[in-house]
Amino acid sequence: AYRDLRPRAPMPEFRAEFFPFANINNTIRLRDGRVLARISDLLEGAPDDVLYAIAHILLAKLYRKPLDAGCNHRYRQYISRKDVSAMTHRVRQVRGRKRIETAQGRVYDLDAIFDDLNLRFFHGLLARPQMTWSRDHARNALGHYDSAHNAIVVSRVFDRPQVPRYAIEYLVYHEMLHLKHPVRLRGLRRCVHSREFQADEKLFPQLAEAKRFLKTL
After folding, report:
1. What share of the chain is helix, strand, coil (3-state, %, to 5)?
2. What is the largest CA-CA distance in the chain?
3. Residues ≥6 apart with Cβ < 8 Å to 89
4. I need a surface site. Which of 79, 89, 154, 169 has the fewest CB within 10 A?
5. Do the beta carbons of residue 41 and residue 49 sit within 8 Å?
6. Residues sharing a CB contact under 8 Å with residue 162, sequence separation 6 or more, in sequence order
7. Phi-psi sector, 108: left (phi>0), alpha (psi -120 to 50), beta
8. Reading across the β-sheet that carries 151-154, which strands appear in turn?
9. pLDDT for the residue numbered 81
10. How remote is the C-alpha of 149 from its chain's centroid?
11. Closest Cα partner for 24 from 99, 105, 101, 80?
């Protein structure tokens, strides 16, 4: 893969290893003239052409070379397989660290907000996942649903008296829609916010106000 990308460049020393990441992650870096690569051990049984594709993708990233569409397609096709996706999900549950803090904040109780929204919009049919405020006051990740740990996390930046309740309700409602409309694969692409998801999101009565408030952050 290196020779295909850099046919006349000197060959560096390589150190590549499978590594027990919590997900399918692959990393590469150049240090003191050595190329150091870590490949998720979930890919240890992948065919040689898939491993070649991974090598090409990492090296193209490292040396800022054009990415071969065939290699990218081959890699995406492999990790999108049902058996690989299922194995990845199981490993995330075991290895992934999900520190659950508390649903009860200083001002707002996420459990109570979930239960209220569940009755108002979902006929009380959604099973409540673990609800938790984040450890820090994150502004780049306001909220997310972690399917591997069945947890909804909301940034603690919202647990303040000056934050209107509808803003938190919208964040929780958005993540609840991920429970109703799970991520689906369309070919090799993950569909996170389907048309059905977006249609349901528009049913939130204070959607415009909530989005305007979030922009202030």
Report:
1. 45, 20, 35
2. 66
3. 147, 148
4. 89
5. no
6. none
7. beta
8. 130-133, 151-154, 143-146
9. 86
10. 12
11. 80
Of 22, 21, 1, the C-alpha closest to 11 is 1
**Total residue count of the chain as it appears in this document:** 217
Task: List, for residues 135-175, the tens digit of each pLDDT value.
Answer: 776 556 788 888 777 889 999 999 999 999 999 999 999 99
Q: Closest Cα to residue 201, out of 172, 182, 173?
A: 173
- How far from chain centre, in Å, is Cα 10? 37
CA Rg, the chain, in Å?
Answer: 22
Structure tokens at 82: 């049902």
Q: Could you read off the pLDDT of 34-46 as tens digits, one per residue?
A: 999 999 998 998 9
Query: How far apart, in whole angstroms, are the C-alpha atoms of residue 6 and residue 59?
Result: 10
- How far apart are the C-alpha atoms of 177 and 174, rounded to whole Å? 5
pTM exceeding 0.70: no
Q: How far is CA 65 from the centre of its chain?
A: 26
Question: How far is Cα 200 from Cα 194, in angstroms, rounded to an integer?
Answer: 10
Instruction: List CB contacts of 83: < 8 A, sequence separation 6 or more.
Output: none
Q: Which residue has the tokens 């940034």?
A: 155
